Amino acid sequence: MTHASHTDHRRATDHRRATDDERLRPTTEGLPDWLDPVVRVVGSVEPLQLSRFLPPEDGAGRQSAVLILFGEGDRGPELLLMERASSLRSHAGQPSFPGGALDPEDGDPRAEGPLRAALREAEEETGLDPGGVQLFGMLPKLYIPVSGFVVAPVLGWWRERSPVGVVDPNETARVFTVPVADLTDPANRATALHPSGHRGPAFLVESALVWGFTAGVIDRLLHYAGWERPWDRGRQVPLDWRA
Which of 5, 36, 95, 234 has its CA 20 to 30 A from that of 79? Predict the structure, then answer.
């Protein structure tokens, strides 16, 4: 009886490992046609086309990953975002992709580590079921100087929807989706102006101001996917020093 139980446990563990390994193999098979332009971006975009802030050549920086998750809602293609809790020391109250730093158990940062971390963090922050996500690529790693994070943007297709919401209010204020149609609407676009003089793209969607790293990645994805519409770059949204 003991032997049978041990065997069953080992088989279950092997099955979970196999399922996890399969999930961490990015594939474009079965993706909806409207994602084709994004797939082309993954295969062709150069790091400097996404940002001038690239990982330090000396290897410094904390390895991290975010999940750029595309789903399909009532209004067509959409992105999953979250708003960080206002009590956090870093990027408080700022909308972002789910994500965070790699843990040792995530694996090699140069291989499957960012893929596993992106799914793990998304599950921890939004309650997302990783089993319903099909990863289909990763953009070049970027750098956030203010926090020292080296970020791997992992792209996924929300193949099987699952309920999402705030898991820990101390970390996350809310979880929401934004239709791509709203992100491309010129009426929702602006240039964020920080008191330091830094300027960057911004999106006013779902009662939120999306700016910084997240807005920069969305802006470049829309541009290189051919989804961008002409918008007024002279329209400015001022930020304060706490941003």
Answer: 234
φ, ψ at 103 (rounded to 5°): -95, 155
Residue 188 class from Cβ within 10 Å (0-12 exposed, 13-18 middle, 19+ buried)? Answer: middle
| Predicted confidence (pLDDT) per residue in 38-91, tens digit | 999 999 999 999 999 999 999 999 999 999 999 999 999 999 999 988 665 555
Residue 230 CB partners (closer than 8 Å, separation 6+): 186
Tens-place pLDDT, residues 187-212: 999 999 988 888 999 999 999 999 99
- In angstroms, the CA 159 to CA 143 distance is 29
Q: What are phi and psi of 67, to 5 degrees?
A: -105, 115
Angle 18-116-139 (CA atoms, 0-180°, nearest 5)? 120
What DSSP element (H or E) covers 79? strand 76-84
Q: From the centroid of its chain, how far is CA 180?
A: 14
Q: State both tokens at 71.
A: 């789903």
Which of 156, 148, 152, 141 shows the shortest CA–CA distance to 91?
148
